[in-house]
Amino acid sequence: MRSPSCVKRVVGAAAVALSFAVAIAGCSSTTSSGGGDATKLSLMIWDPAQKAGVQKAVDGFEAKFPKIQVDVQQVPQDQYYTKLDASLSAGEGPDVMWQSSAVSQYINGGALEPLDGYIKQDSVNLSDYASSITSLYNVNGKQYGIPKDEDTWTFVYNTAVFAKLGVTDVPTNDWTWDDMVRIAKEIKAKQTSPTDVPMSCDRTFNNGVASLIHQLGGKIVNQNKGVVSSPEGIQALTMMKGLQDQGLIPVVANSADFNPASSLISGTVAMAEIPSWNLSLLSQANVPADTFHLVRAPSVNGKWLTDTNGLAYVMNANSRHKDEAWKLIEYLTSTQGAEQHAAGGAAIPANTDKAAFDAYVSANSKLAGLSDAVAAARQQNYLRTSTQYPATRAPLPQIESTQMGPFYAGSITASDAAKGIDQILDKALG
Amino acid sequence: MDFHRVRWWTYATVIVVGLLVLAPFAWMVATALMSTTQTLQATPSVIPSPPTLQGVQEVFAKLPFLRLLGNTVVVSLGRALATLVIASLAAYALAIIKVPGARIILVLVLMLIMVPGDIFIIPSFSIMAKLHLTNTLVALVLPNVFDVFGVFLLYQFFRGVPRELIEAARIDGASHLRILFTIVVPISRGGLIALAILAVLNEWKELLWPIVVNNDVDQLTLGPGLALLRGTAVTDWNVLMSAGALATLPMIVIFLLLQRHFVSSFARSGLK
Questions:
Q1: For chains A and B, what is the number of CB pairs under 8 angstroms?
Q2: Which of A262, A275, A346 sits opposite B42 (nearest CB)?
Q3: Which residues of A touch B37 (CB under 8 A)?
């Protein structure tokens, strides 16, 4: 049936196609490693807002170690872990990378290199970093990451709005929950536009409500079980709903479209709780310097706990240049490296040296009170529930939609919502 | 002539639907012409005042835009060409030669269509890594050219080629390749054009795979390039929208040039 000449032609065509493919491969593969005996390292990060800062620190590193070249690869956050999974499982991947609270699965999979030997060898002092973040990267007694940043929450008020409304009672760094309610009520009394709201604070379970429970002395998870249906849990839920019911924060129906940072910029709220990763939005806003003033969260029973999480630099266990990769991690997390990174302005350095923090403050010099507020916030914080118990991360949207939403809308009681949350947490913690 | 008269409500519907389709694009272009501070205004304004090309300048400062565009064109055309060759050879074997087990192969092809593509990312990466092709443009094309949907589509078209034509050619001594390229392909032109357009569109839209397999921004296409501009917490929307507008332009030009083929080939294949 099939003639031999046909087979020959098919084989010939395939050969042509193959050689074509090889030719393309030849032209397009990157053969730019002509830098003599320089070692090439790759560093993978996800946040474009921090790329400039990281690049600055990397430039400092390359100046100190001219024989090492570092290629900074920024990958969008949505694809970051997929790319990491694919490349690490194929025995490739970046030499040094960012990691978050998802770190434990990579450690259990053997993808990351323990750093204890290097830490000892160069006598790096881990107490120079925020301890809660450092401990996050310590698994089975081994240290896998050196912390790079630490996030936190502060309250920001728009001084122009306070001045316009004639409210002289402003938030301070020693304010309490009752002070907050009093100030918000005065603002509400003086606001004229029906769309304005006095303030906003984070009302989500994982951030605002959980922090309030901690402030009241309660816990979210105890012995691997959800314990939100405690007196503290119910009180926290009731306090948060009270703010809404008094019209001091946006009602839940409007909260999906509500953006605290832009509302603060436009002045439709007078004060708002803002996460540190959104502060650079306020720095960039087209308003006079010192329009925004920062204070720590209001205290309840003398405590002002807010949740925190932080990223770390970790090393690929497959790296071909582990000594150089360590030098890079050490430099980036050193005071000098952290200072250079912080000059980019987007993340609070986990390195607790004053110089690093000062660099962050001066990069955000438009924000008044930043230094004191962030310093106070960092004194009293706890690891975010989804950070300390990564298994609780996945059901967070479920908690918001099936419990918190109906609770704020008034269709279920605080104790029902707390019970529902505990059930969801128990299932996740299984 | 009454048959051809267009009624007023046809115009009304066309205008309303047209506006709905165009509005997001208009917003994209408007945002592209704003400065970053203008995009942050609450009660967002739709009209840039004053319009500025700051966003466009930022795009060129942050991304090797022309390189990305060039890569996208090369990779899309390469993908379309390779897909056409491979899919038409496979469809020919299944529909015209009817190789032994063609029906089983066809069922396998249909089953593969039902598997979500993301499942292949990790194995594909491993294969590319073994071939030392990661971080190359070839890696963007190669795993996608074995397009099972394309095989199925062309199989349907090739089945419609009259048997008599092929038998006559066989009697005259034509080889299979000759029959494929001189008889089957010209008759099924509509299907091939539809497949080529789909291949180009799919490559233009590709996001996850290029980001996973390639590291250097020089080896990426436009979609992932745009994704690099999207911030984790903070995004400069004017820059992102400028890049979006610039990336859409070539597609609009291509569409205007090939409008006739688009419409006719999709009408024939019943696809979009």
A1: 123
A2: A262
A3: 284-286
- The reported pLDDT for the residue numbered B40 is 66
Mean pLDDT by 10 residues, chain A (430 residues): 48 48 43 62 90 93 96 90 91 93 89 96 93 91 95 95 95 95 96 89 94 95 94 96 94 78 88 90 86 96 91 95 96 95 87 92 93 92 91 92 95 96 94
pLDDT value for B41: 65
pTM of the model: 0.78
Which two tokens mark A376? 């106070």
Please name the residues in contact with B213: beta carbons below 8 A apart, sequence gap of 6 or more.
A86, B124, B125, B128, B134, B135, B139, B140
Say if residues B62 and B239 touch (Cβ distance below 8 Å). yes
d(CA B90, CA B105): 10
Q: Which of A315, A318, A321, A314 is nearest to A91 (CA)?
A: A318
DSSP B150-212: HHHHHHHHHHTS-HHHHHHHHHTT--HHHHIIIIIHHHTHHHHHHHHHHHHHHHHH--HHHHH
Q: Is there a contact between A76 and B138 if contact means CB atoms under 8 Å apart?
A: no
The closest of A374, A369, A385, A375 to A307, measured between CA atoms, is A385
Spatial distance between the Cα atoms of A157 and B196, rounded to a whole number of angstroms? 56
Q: How far is CA B232 from CA A109, A115, B205, in A?
A: 26, 28, 21
Sign of CA dihedral A200, A202, A204, A209: negative
B164–A contact, CB cutoff 8 A:
no
- Nearest chain A Cα to B93, which residue? A2
Read off the amino acid at residue A428. A
